[in-house]
Every structure is written in C-alpha cells, then in structure tokens.
UniProtKB/TrEMBL annotation:
Its EC number is 3.1.3.3. PANTHER family: PHOSPHOSERINE PHOSPHATASE. Pathway: Amino-acid biosynthesis; L-serine biosynthesis; L-serine from 3-phospho-D-glycerate: step 3/3. This is phosphoserine phosphatase. InterPro entries: HAD-like_SerB (IPR050582), HAD-like_sf (IPR036412), HAD_sf (IPR023214). SUPFAM superfamilies: HAD-like (SSF56784). It catalyses: O-phospho-L-serine + H2O = L-serine + phosphate; O-phospho-D-serine + H2O = D-serine + phosphate. Keywords: Amino-acid biosynthesis, Hydrolase, Magnesium, Metal-binding, Serine biosynthesis. It comes from Rheinheimera soli. Transmembrane segments: none annotated. Its cofactor is Mg(2+).
Amino acid sequence: MKAYCFDLDGTLTRLELLPMIANEIGLHEEISALTEATIKGVIPFRKSFLLRCRLLNEISVSRVNEIVQEIPLYEAIVNFINANSQNCFVVTGNLDVWVLCLQKKIKARFYCSKASVKDNFIKSIDTVLEKSDAIDEIRRLGFEQIIAIGDGMGDVSMFEKADVGIAFGATHEPIQSLIEHSNYITFSETALCKLLNTL
C-alpha cells in the first residue's frame, strides 16, 4: 500500500501562504524574505516559522482563513489527492488553524503545526511539525511505500524518511539539497500527476 505525502506551500498552492497573509499588515517583503531564506535552508524552519508567526499574530484567525481560501491551488494535483484520499497526506509546517479552509478542498489527512486560539487570535504555538515525525507516523499506519513530494529545505527530512522523493519545481526551483534526496524532478502539475499515476 502506497502513501503520497505532499508539502503544501508551493506544492499544492501556487503561492506561499505566509507572504500572502503578510500583505494584510504591510509585511509582505519581510515575510517573503524570511520565507525564501527558509526554503533555501539559510534559516532553520523552526526558528523562521516562529518568527514569522510572531510577526503575523495581529491578524485574526478568521481573517487568515479568508485570505488562504483565495490562494490558488494546483487543481490537477488536488484532483489526484481527492481521487486517492485514503492514501494521501498533506505534511505542512503551517498552523492547523490557518489551513482549516484548505482541508475542505483537499480531501487528505493533514499533519500541521498546532496553535491555541483565544478570542480569534493565536494565543500560543503549541507544536512545530517535524516532517520526518509525520512520515514515521504515516509508516506506522501500515503503508509499505511512502512517496514524498515537495520543493524546499523543509521537505528534506521528509524525503530522507520516504521511499521515493519527487522534487516539484512549478512554483520554486527545487533546492539542491532536496534534489540530492530526490528520485524524480518535475516542473509542471501535469508531469507530476502523470508520474504519480505510474508509480
């Protein structure tokens, strides 16, 4: 039995979520720079993510969901997931409360970082997801082969634990360290879906 594990930002979404959220409070450039540095591995994900959350915590959770709701998805990939929902997982460092609206569109089990909310605002970041831990948990569910799909430094630990790694370069050029852990590289959603259907 195969499990397909997808990164979210830049893999299922055509844009990075946190820079789009940052537009709301005029911090797009700052958050974009931090996001880009994180994708490239210049700043560790955990440190960068907590800093970005701190910068964005003045935006209400409901407003974040409204923004995220409008972010375009790679529809062909989402269609593949929805047709294979029992075998598909979204593994993202994003906060669970920020991606609730996407869970209605993408019929997969989500592994996310977790936050507590009070009066519609983030009260605390309770856990920051380690993607390798998510892969370990998915393997314990009984999947014999795990196929990981992603584009950035945050996906390397997921690729290290997976049986097959696919670097996806439609939104960002995949970073070299991820390519080194990849079995395949694709640059369009059509090519990715064709590959997924042949594995």
